[in-house]
TrEMBL record:
PROSITE patterns the record matches: LON_N (PS51787)
Stretches that traverse the bilayer: none
Signal peptide positions on this chain: none
Pfam families hit by this protein: LON_substr_bdg
Lineage: superkingdom: Bacteria
InterPro entries: Lon_prtase_N, Lon_prtase_N_sf, PUA-like_sf
Domain named Lon N-terminal: residues: 5-191
The name this protein goes by in its record: Peptidase S16
Length: 195
């Protein structure tokens, strides 16, 4: 299924099920978020490939995440404090920029069903449990789904201090178990330890 949606290019990578907290102050994005909330429509979030978050339209990476606004406050005039939830991966099949520098894209939703976490990646479940204890409930949307490879890989990738390029490369992988395979290389099993 394809449809045209507004795109919010950011210096961040979000996965389905993930939580994005962002301060929105540029008029084009304040208007976009307001329109999306009023019509209960999603928008896309993509890592910036070229350009900056502020000013002229940035070129987004072609794979990103569909998001829905979960919460929005305006504590200061013209500034929105937005919390959005990733709902699915998307591919941009062509973009164009409006006069106000808002990027619109023909968006294709990329299917991703639940895939069980292979036993060999049990260590990653324990790593994420420790990370979630440290970051607290404000950094993610419960409930935890430690048995879902996509959810596990997404939360690890979002919450660990990984380079944005690696996070984007993981988002672009269609197979959630392949994402876990890459992440597992970052946490080798200690000598004499179990996988």
């Amino acid at each position: 299924m394809t449809s045209e949606l507004p795109i919010f290019p950011l210096n961040a990578v979000l996965f389905p099920g993930g939580r994005l907290a962002v301060r929105v102050f540029e008029k084009r994005y304040v208007d976009m978020v307001t329109r999306c909330m009023k019509s209960d429509r999603p928008f896309g979030v993509c890592l910036i490939k070229k350009g900056e978050e502020v000013g002229a339209a940035a070129e987004p990476h072609p794979i990103g995440t569909l998001v829905q606004v979960a919460h929005c406050d305006m504590d200061q005039p013209g500034i929105l404090e937005v919390v959005a939830r990733g709902t699915g991966r998307i591919r941009l099949n062509g973009t164009h920029t409006q006069p106000d520098q808002l990027v619109l894209a023909e968006v294709e939703t990329l299917p991703e069903g639940e895939v069980p976490v292979p036993e060999r990646h049990g260590r990653l479940v324990e790593v994420l449990k420790q990370v979630l204890k440290q970051v607290g409930d404000e950094a993610w949307f419960p409930p935890a789904r430690f048995d879902d490879a996509g959810w596990l890989a997404g939360r690890l990738t979002e919450l660990l201090p990984l380079p944005l390029g690696l996070k984007q490369a993981l988002l672009e992988l269609d197979d959630p178990v392949a994402r876990l395979d890459v992440l597992a290389e970052l946490f080798p099993t200690p000598p004499g330890g179990n996988a």
